[in-house]
């Protein structure tokens, strides 16, 4: 794992933004998976729908970042955030980490709106997750003072694997993955890492 939180209580205390986003993933997935007809209009009002966004419903650029179609989708994104989010939250601070996460997700969704058909609908945190990978890639290539060489190779391999998996995913939003990654990489030079931070390291458990 890439953090040193040994239990849920430590995760919440040390990494509050990651904890809140993870909780939102799980709670909203449970709410919308329940057979509650009253929630169906809410779902339709907050999922990403390209045509609606083009008509001015811009909140749909953000709201899909905490919504998921099924358990596997939610679990995969939540696991990635749990593994890769804490070190960056600690490195950037809460505000900058949130800017990276939401900025990457919004960048991915803007690309989806511009490049995919008006009737296309989308939910999921994948664009934001790939923004974290974009940030890590920048650090691995240009901030060798923060990431040891052996971990640089590990990070780059993980990023390449995730990119290849997105290419093979038939129902995935490849545009969101690629542009989330690109947005994270573009934001990275402007989000200063605190100089007192220890180097990136893998916690063995």
TrEMBL record:
Membrane-spanning intervals of the chain: 12-34, 97-116, 122-141, 153-168, 174-193
Membrane topology: Multi-pass membrane protein
GO CC annotation: membrane
Keywords linked to the UniProt accession: Hydrolase, Membrane, Transmembrane, Transmembrane helix
Single GO MF annotation: serine-type endopeptidase activity
Domain Peptidase S54 rhomboid: 56-191
InterPro entries cross-referenced by the UniProt entry: Peptidase_S54_rhomboid_dom, Rhomboid-like_sf, Rhomboid_protease_S54
SUPFAM superfamilies registered for this protein in UniProt: Rhomboid-like
Subcellular location: Membrane
Predominant location category: membrane
PANTHER family per UniProt: PRESENILIN-ASSOCIATED RHOMBOID-LIKE PROTEIN, MITOCHONDRIAL, RHOMBOID PROTEASE
Family: Belongs to the peptidase S54 family.
Name of this protein: Peptidase S54 rhomboid domain-containing protein
Source organism per UniProt: Geobacillus thermodenitrificans (strain NG80-2)
Lineage: Bacteria, Bacillati, Bacillota, Bacilli, Bacillales
């Amino acid at each position: 794992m890439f953090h040193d939180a040994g239990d849920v209580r430590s995760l919440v205390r040390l990494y509050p933004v990651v904890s809140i986003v993870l909780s939102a993933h799980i709670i909203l997935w449970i709410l919308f998976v329940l057979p509650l007809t009253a929630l169906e209009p809410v779902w339709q009002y907050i999922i990403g729908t390209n045509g609606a966004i083009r008509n001015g419903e811009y909140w749909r650029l953000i709201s899909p970042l905490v919504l998921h179609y099924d358990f596997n989708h939610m679990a995969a994104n939540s696991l990635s955030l749990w593994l890769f989010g804490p070190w960056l939250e600690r490195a950037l601070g809460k505000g900058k980490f949130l800017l990276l996460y939401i900025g990457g997700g919004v960048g991915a969704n803007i690309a989806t709106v511009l490049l995919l058909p008006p009737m296309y609908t989308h939910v999921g945190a994948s664009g934001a997750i790939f923004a974290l990978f974009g940030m890590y890639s920048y650090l691995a290539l240009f901030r060798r003072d923060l990431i040891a060489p052996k971990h640089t190779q590990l990070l780059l391999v993980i990023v390449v694997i995730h990119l290849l998996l997105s290419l093979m995913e038939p129902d995935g939003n490849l545009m969101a993955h690629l542009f989330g990654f690109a947005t994270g990489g573009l934001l990275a030079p402007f989000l200063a890492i605190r100089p007192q931070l220890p180097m990136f390291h893998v916690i063995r458990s």
